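Duplicate of earlier report; ABC transporter permease input re-posted below.
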Amino acid sequence: MLKIVTTEWKLFLREPSMVVFSILFPSTLLLVLGAIPALRTPDPNFGDLRFIDSYVSTLVVIALAFLGLNKLPATVATYREKGVLRRFSTTPVHPARLLVAQLIVNVVAGVISVVLLMAVCRLVFAIDLPHHPVGFLVTFVLGMLSLSALGLLVAAWAPTARSAGGWAGVVFMLVMFFGGAYLPRFLMPEFLVRVGEFLPPGVGALQESWLGVAPDPVQLAVLALVTVVAGTVAAKSFRWE
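Output:
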């Protein structure tokens, strides 16, 4: 298992675009936004916080979305299309271990991305670290698992790697929209903001725990439900070849 995880991590590092967008892009975007003086000024729209303070949770969403909905389904679908999973089934190593390795690589990459983001937040812009670390950690894990489950569901249903990328792209855009990546959440209608708070990876719970409030248990329950339902359906309908 360790050998498989190590190999998958090496393959991940050989994809420069994925490394850049999932690990480096959130911190780079924060540096770019923080270079604008108006976004470093307290604003009543953000509860007298700066825009960059309230946008950190969206940056976490970006990192998780790239890993769960861009990397995971495309990689798994490509492995199936090229016969990698079928070949694994002829060895003592069950193909499911390859899927577990993908999840582990995603979690490790996500942790590195968020830790780097926290370092930039604290050292460059004096943004406080999560005030409710336990709530943030729980939301992060559930957010990663829920998006990964959706990514595996796409990989299970998509007939080819190309179609997996297209289907996952649609889900990716929806996650990014409701997560405030395309349009800041304070500019959205209230009902869209509320809907986004209950969709993976839980931008509302991420923001609440970062600012010091315990995340809404209902939001966490929805993330757990999505993980279980999407993961179960993906497992039952997954094709190894």
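The chain has ten helices and no strands.

Merging into the original ticket.
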